């Protein structure tokens, strides 16, 4: 059974292909178009399809559009209601619904040869739920919690997976929406709505939640599996900021208060859901599930033994969820995700051809992991481009910027490299078997979706990855899953005594994560990065800007296996 999943309506357009239950590929349109989030979440863009992502998924499997058995579109316009009937101020939402109803036609235009009769509408939050419950490992019986800005008429879904079946237990109707409330705050603080919510979470660590009592008048659980979340008078709590304006203590306090109230509400929802199901495992999806601080509290204080969050928890993940749901409904058991590396990748020969075409000097060291570890130990900033790209917003050792965590100045240095705010933290990647010695929280944490307390004895040893509140957003690395990254971490520890390396996404502010070799070379050329490790090859900054190519036939005597672009 061959099912293509498509997310297109709001933001983060994406495509995913599932064949006989196995996820063959999944990618976000932004990685191809180089437009952050693919498009803005306005009704006028709702017709746009993830054409390049979908075409790549099919090419990855050697399929044509007419070879598909079904296409899942992760929104069902039959469930929608007029925006004013839902209490939303969105006068052009009717245009969005019109585009949704015509999705099959838009898909046929994007994928010539596709039979529009095989396009099926999948309820938005059921697609989110499937992306969590049907993709999670060891979770054939589990609870699932979905929270985002909005779907057709709701903003939340509590559900349960039993075998390969999903049962909805509760949905919170709009206008009440924890996601929309957090979006409002994001805009009030001068950040980009439906894009920069993670900045509010980072800013919250600098404040005190002294406004929580006032916010609880407007945001609170209702005790029946739902919540009230609307009508917050943000302007009465702190003056609004224009984009680029400097925040003050009152803004940090407002962010801290909203973050605390969000966490408390989510904990209540998790406890209610556990009371209904008694499951050991909770899976989560929806944009709110990217709030790693809240996830950590649910894992630490909630009633479930284990919490698993979909790495592509935002709307991009509904492409995969829709495909998995139709697969399960077709009688084919869906296989769990084995990792987030579901996007594009290139062979060594293809990468070498890219480098030669770009006419840049490059080398092929005996072991790129050893070479990078040595560079990091010498305090270089390294662009790391390896294997298939990640699905979702987190760089997980495939499209990453790496640096030494023991140099406190490297936080400011990396934020300068990326052109982003200095209050933003960077994350540590750590060998899985060493993580518990350094970090306290849910482990393993391979997808960087929880925060962990850093052990006091380690805070001065790895200061660059310790946030102002003493936490870090950890990625654990298992050698069985990521042998190259693990080998680099092992060599770095041998050189420095630290089993941790800084890992942040390979991009600059306002641009999507690097995806193909051209993106990597453009980023390397435009940002002060010392070394590019691309497949088995390395490009050094000095040689990159020295001009010209290495002399034909010249060999670095210290590197007998060095290759050169001819």
UniProtKB/TrEMBL annotation:
Residues 2-72, 118-210, 251-324 form the Carbamoyltransferase domain. SUPFAM superfamilies: Actin-like ATPase domain, YrdC/RibB. Pfam families: Carbam_trans_C, Carbam_trans_N. InterPro entries: ATPase_NBD, Carbam_trans_C, Carbam_trans_C_sf, Carbtransf_dom, DHBP_synth_RibB-like_a/b_dom, NodU/CmcH_Carbamoyltrnsfr. Residues 373-541 form the Carbamoyltransferase C-terminal domain. Belongs to the NodU/CmcH family. This is Carbamoyltransferase.
């Amino acid at each position: 059974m061959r099912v293509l999943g498509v997310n297109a309506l709001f933001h983060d357009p994406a495509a995913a292909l599932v064949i006989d239950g196995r996820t063959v590929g999944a990618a976000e349109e932004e990685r191809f178009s180089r437009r952050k989030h693919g498009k803005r979440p306005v009704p006028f863009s709702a017709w746009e399809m993830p054409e390049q992502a979908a075409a790549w998924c099919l090419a990855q499997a050697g399929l044509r559009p007419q070879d598909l058995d079904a296409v899942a579109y992760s929104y069902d316009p039959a469930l929608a209601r007029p925006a004013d009937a839902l209490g939303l101020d969105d006068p052009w939402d009717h245009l969005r619904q019109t585009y949704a109803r015509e999705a099959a036609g838009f898909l046929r235009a994007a994928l010539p040869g596709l039979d529009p009769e095989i396009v099926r509408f999948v309820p938005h939050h059921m697609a989110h739920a499937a992306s969590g419950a049907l993709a999670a490992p060891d979770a054939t019986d589990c609870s699932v919690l979905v929270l985002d800005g909005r779907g057709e008429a709701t903003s939340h879904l509590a559900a349960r997976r039993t075998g390969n079946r999903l049962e909805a237990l509760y949905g919170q109707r709009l206008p009440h929406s924890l996601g929309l409330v957090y979006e409002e705050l994001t805009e009030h603080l001068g950040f980009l709505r439906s894009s920069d919510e993670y900045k509010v979470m980072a800013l919250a660590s600098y404040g005190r939640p002294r406004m929580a009592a006032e916010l609880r008048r407007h945001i609170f659980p209702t005790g029946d599996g739902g919540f009230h979340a609307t009508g917050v008078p943000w302007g009465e709590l702190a003056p609004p900021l224009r984009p680029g304006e400097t925040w003050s203590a009152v803004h940090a306090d407002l962010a801290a208060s909203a973050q605390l109230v969000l966490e408390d509400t989510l904990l209540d929802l998790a406890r209610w859901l556990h009371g209904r199901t008694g499951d050991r495992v909770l899976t989560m999806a929806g944009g709110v599930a990217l709030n790693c601080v809240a996830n950590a509290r649910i894992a630490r204080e909630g009633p479930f033994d284990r919490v698993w969050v979909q790495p592509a928890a935002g709307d991009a993940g509904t492409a995969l969820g829709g495909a998995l749901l139709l697969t399960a409904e077709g009688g084919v058991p869906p296989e769990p995700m084995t990792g987030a590396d579901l996007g594009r990748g290139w062979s060594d020969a293809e990468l070498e051809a890219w480098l030669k075409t770009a006419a840049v000097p490059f080398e092929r060291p005996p072991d790129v992991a050893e070479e990078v570890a040595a560079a990091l130990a010498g305090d270089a900033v390294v662009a790391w481009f390896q294997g298939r790209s990640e699905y979702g917003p987190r760089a997980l050792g495939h499209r990453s910027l790496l640096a030494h965590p023991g140099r406190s100045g490297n936080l400011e240095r990396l934020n300068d490299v990326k052109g982003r705010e200095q209050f933003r933290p960077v994350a540590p990647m750590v060998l899985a078997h060493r993580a518990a010695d350094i970090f306290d929280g849910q482990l393993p944490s391979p997808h960087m979706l929880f925060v962990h307390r850093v052990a006091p004895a380690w805070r001065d040893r790895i200061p660059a990855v310790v946030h102002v509140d003493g936490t870090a957003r950890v990625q654990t690395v298992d050698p069985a899953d990521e042998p190259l990254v693990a080998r680099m971490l092992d060599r770095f520890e041998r050189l420095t005594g630290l089993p941790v390396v800084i890992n942040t996404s390979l991009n600059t502010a306002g641009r999507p994560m690097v995806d193909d070799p051209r993106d990597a070379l453009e980023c390397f050329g435009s940002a002060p990065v010392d070394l590019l490790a691309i497949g088995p090859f390395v490009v050094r900054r000095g040689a990159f800007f020295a001009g010209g190519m290495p002399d034909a036939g010249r060999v670095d005597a210290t590197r007998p296996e060095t290759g050169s672009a001819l």
